[in-house]
Specification:
membrane, globular, transmembrane, about 70% helix, two-stranded antiparallel sheet, transmembrane helix, DUF112_TM, disordered C terminus
Length: about 525
């Protein structure tokens, strides 16, 4: 009953005229960000975060959360129409979405994807309402040792899941921890790595680093990859014969795909580091496995589009569970949201729902409303959003860079931070070039101060001994989780080596998916690549 009462109070907060306006604006901006190839939720949130400076925290988080899940669907439009994912979480949507468009069924494909997003968002938000209070109640009993181990487990999970190589992932995280040490040492009061600059006394702010790595870095990477030279093919979103809406058969064969994708996506999204990309790819594999006609996958099977689309949208709700209850961002996008919390003077964690119930439950309630707004925009405004995908990259790139510069400068009116942002843009390019993981760097930068503080508190309590980590059952359980995460890559590598068939000497047929058009080898490669920008 407490959950229902809190949700109704949050709904009253979310239904205020100002918050409804911000909700609509956030969904709209999120979809615009999502349809721009090269941008994604992380880059969009990082660029838009400075706009919330000085806003009411309740309205600001409603808008940014709307941008987050709006961008998830926005990437589907380009995935279906031009076979170009707007961001990595919609890679799986290209496997069957693009073949459907080539069959003249782009309209039904986009409408079914919109319905899947709505169902998944509603299911995910309902599960969030149930899971968040229970998780917060457990986390409220955590002391400094447990909090330190939670931070380490979350970061290690990210490194294991998103990195091709654990060493490169660890190096990326170490870089973030190094950046987090710049500024005043809270424990001793000494300056660390400021090089005499007064601008660095308060440390390196998260915003210029995130904007540089995800915004400018993406522009440079796209230029280097030649993505700006690719010729794009466009499709009318109206199906041949004037049929825009899906058929009854589309709905019947996809209804359980929505349910499976929604549940799978939520629980995968709860795992730090997994994110929407892993959820969507896992859902695609599940749908093909349970299908009675797996040979249709990769050739225009509606469940092959609906399942991944439901999973990647439900994962956004799942990612909110560790963020709100533990203060632990599970992806680069939720790391940007965490930075927003801190900028507004709020500390996400076990006490957030007790000390700021209007804020927390207003956010959850706004996600219910946002899904309805998203559905309406998706169904009736798809042709308008599709035109954004036609913007040439030589026009889009300067706009993105200018927005990055203005957004960074607007936070503290600091030229030094603009320089840091541009330097991080170059760093982000080289990280992508050499297989490092920018998301791990960003999350380590955000979690670094918390990790340092909780480790110091733990050692003060124990008198400098590390035995405190094995004195409580919760700490022992978390240490076991850390051990499992360390063993996971070895187990996966061994299993793949046993499963791997002999190499076929025949050359690749050149199909966009696997040799049979199924997209299986794309799934394998995508699972090994960084899922979140």
């Amino acid at each position: 009953m407490d959950i229902l009462g809190n949700l109704l109070n949050g709904l009253g907060h979310a239904l205020s005229p100002v918050n409804l306006l911000l909700l609509g604006a956030g969904v709209l901006m999120g979809m615009v960000v999502g349809v721009m190839p090269g941008l994604g939720p992380s880059a969009g949130l990082a660029i838009l975060l400075p706009l919330t400076f000085g806003m009411d925290p309740g309205g600001a988080i409603v808008m940014l959360a709307a941008v987050y899940y709006g961008a998830m669907y926005g990437g589907t439009i380009t995935s279906v129409l031009i076979n170009t994912p707007g961001e990595s979480a919609t890679v799986a949507s290209t496997f069957d979405g693009y073949p459907l468009a080539k069959q003249g069924r782009a309209g039904p494909a986009l409408v079914m994807a919109a319905l899947a997003s709505f169902v998944a968002g509603t299911v995910g938000t309902l599960l969030l309402s149930l899971a968040a209070p229970a998780t917060a109640a457990v986390a409220a009993s955590f002391g400094p040792p447990e909090l330190f181990l939670v931070v380490m487990a979350g970061l290690l999970a990210l490194i294991v899941i998103v990195g091709r190589n654990m060493v490169l992932g660890a190096v990326s995280a170490l870089l973030g921890f190094c950046l987090a040490t710049v500024g005043i040492d809270v424990g001793g009061g000494e300056q660390r790595y400021t090089f005499g600059s007064t601008e660095l006394i308060n440390g390196i702010d998260f915003i210029p680093v995130a904007i540089g790595l995800f915004g400018v870095g993406e522009v440079l990477w796209t230029l280097y990859n030649g993505g700006h030279l690719e010729r794009l093919r466009y499709f009318d979103v109206r199906a041949r014969g004037g049929r825009f809406w899906p058929t009854a058969q589309d709905w019947v064969e996809s209804r359980w795909s929505m349910v499976r994708g929604s549940i799978l996506g939520f629980f995968v999204g709860c795992a730090p580091g997994a994110g929407a990309t892993v959820a969507s790819l896992m859902s695609y594999s599940v749908e093909k496995s349970v299908s009675k006609k797996p040979e249709r996958f990769g050739k225009g099977a509606m469940p092959g589009l609906v399942g991944p689309e439901a999973a990647n949208n439900a994962a956004t709700s799942g990612a909110m569970v560790p963020l709100l209850t533990l203060g632990l961002p599970g992806s680069s996008a939720t790391a940007v949201l965490l930075a927003g919390f801190l900028m507004w003077g709020l500390q996400p964690g076990p006490l957030l729902m007790e000390q700021n119930p209007e804020f927390a439950w207003g956010l959850i309630a706004s996600m219910y409303l946002g899904n309805a707004v998203l559905l309406a925009l998706n169904v009736f405004c798809v042709p308008v959003f599709a035109t954004i995908a036609r913007v040439p990259f030589h026009v889009l790139a300067p706009i993105v860079v200018v927005m990055c510069v203005l957004g960074t400068y607007a936070v503290n009116n600091s030229i030094v931070e603009v320089g840091i942002m541009l330097a991080c843009g170059v760093l982000g390019f080289f990280m992508r070039r050499f297989g490092l993981v920018p998301a791990a760097t960003v999350i380590a930068l955000v979690l670094g101060p918390l990790a340092e503080e909780t480790l110091r508190q733990t050692l003060i309590i124990s008198g400098g001994g590390f035995g405190i980590f094995v004195q409580r059952p919760t700490s022992i359980a978390l240490l076991c989780v850390l051990g499992l995460l360390l063993a996971l890559p070895l187990a996966v590598r061994t299993a793949r080596a046993r499963r791997r068939p002999p190499k076929d000497p025949e050359p690749d047929s050149g199909q966009g998916a696997g040799e049979d058009g199924s997209g299986e080898h794309i799934v394998d490669r995508a699972l090994e690549s960084p899922p979140e920008r």
